[in-house]
Amino acid sequence: MDTPILQAAGVHKRFGTLEVLRGIDLTVRRGEVVALIGASGSGKTTLLRCINLLEEYDHGQIFVDGELIGYREQDGRRTLLPERVIARQRAHIGMVFQSFNLFPHMTAEGNIVLGLMRVQGKSRREATDTARGWLDRVGLLDKVAAYPYQLSGGQQQRVAIARALAMEPKLMLFDEVTSALDPELVGEVLLVMQDLARTGMTMLVVSHEMLFVREVAHRVVFMDGGRLIEEGSPHELLMNPRSERLKSFLMRFQGVFR
Amino acid sequence: MWHELWIAFPALLRGLAVTLELSAVVIVLGSTIGYLGGLSLEYGPKPLWAAVRVYVDTLRGIPVLVLLFAVFYGLPIVGIQIGAFGAGVVALSVFAGAHMTEVVRGGIASIPRTQGDAAKAIGLQFWERLRWVILPQAVRRILPPWVNTAVELVKGSSLVSLIGVVELLLATQQVVGRTFIVIPTYTLAGLMYFVVNYGISRLGALVERRYAFLSY
């Protein structure tokens, strides 16, 4: 059996008195596209942020490609790993954010080159070539020298995807990446993601784009109140929801599905 | 009168040189303290944060002149002999450092946390994130208040005339004491201060323009 790319077991996270994740078990296999759906506040984003340790989780374990993320466990006690190790772990996990988060003082190419040079230790020439390759892949080869403010939201998000992909991650995390876009710009970003899914990239996608979820995801997971409530194929889950909570959640998307 | 001013001019220039030297040293030292202090306030562990907080709040609440006298008369008592110029450097730098700390802290704090998240996500470590992502953006926000502080420091350097350092102001007073030409001499000195500070402002504006694309 192949090691799963992502394996989360009993993940808990609280902010003060607010328990955001109440024991998450989730497995994502190599090449699988898993969509996380659920109302805002259900813990989807927090789960994503725990996976690359943008948030430290309180209990449980998260393994990426068999490696425990963020902590060392010894005699039942866990300690945070040194920053150097955490940074290396993060470099193998790509993340794309709702608000793009491109570096505004760098060109599209510069945004991608940064990680290639400083994290992967590539030469400038090598990094530039790689960066251009990825910009070409997301259809923005003509924008290598453009600064983020000169790009539309959709273009910025595609650069952000290229920036994450250039690090050759084992797993890509997408955190509501189309939610901040004007409706007419959503399509170009989803197209890039669909293309990526087709090439076998392992993806965990938080999304409210139900059509995309239905067409692209192999598996859908519904979260509510910090728990996984239901999971299954897109067809099962979206067409025949079992739990009341999923039913009422999907009511909001009535009309999206015929 | 023109003749007297002409004779006095070298003395004023010597004073100006001292003012420039003192200001430059104080700006460099103050900026260094400010950089370290700002980082401590933003990222430092609790005890360091508290120590810097006390330093900044205390220093910003004391008139520079009081600080200057305290250093000038106080340090020799505990056996440290650094002379008048040295006392000026210490007092003004410690004062400048407190202000620069707030300037740097404010600049860093104004960069959205999401920038740090994005930098973490590609695998950059703390100093790399600071060097390549946070500081280049913060510079744009730090520059205007930094220029203000620098200009204040050049003007504030005239206070060391009160402990006998012959900088531009004291040099001017000495010339006036000899020649009794009051208004023209002070006008000349004022002009010199102005040229220096206008230069700093222009330089700041020039650098600011280089970062103009960051005005999102």
Automatic annotation (TrEMBL), chain A:
GO terms for molecular function: ABC-type amino acid transporter activity; ATP binding; ATP hydrolysis activity. Its main location: membrane. Keywords: Amino-acid transport, ATP-binding, Cell membrane, Membrane, Nucleotide-binding, Transport. One of its GO terms (cellular component) is plasma membrane. It is a peripheral membrane protein. The keyword Cytoplasm does not apply. PROSITE patterns: ABC_TRANSPORTER_1 (PS00211), ABC_TRANSPORTER_2 (PS50893). Residues 6-250 form the ABC transporter domain. This is Amino acid ABC transporter ATP-binding protein.
UniProtKB/TrEMBL annotation, chain B:
It is found in: Cell membrane. Pfam families: BPD_transp_1. One of its GO terms (biological process) is amino acid transport. The chain crosses the membrane at residues 12-38, 58-75, 179-200. One of its GO terms (cellular component) is ATP-binding cassette (ABC) transporter complex. Residues 16-204 form the ABC transmembrane type-1 domain. This is Amino acid ABC transporter permease. The lineage of its organism: Bacteria, Bacillati, Candidatus Sysuimicrobiota, Candidatus Sysuimicrobiia, Candidatus Sysuimicrobiales.
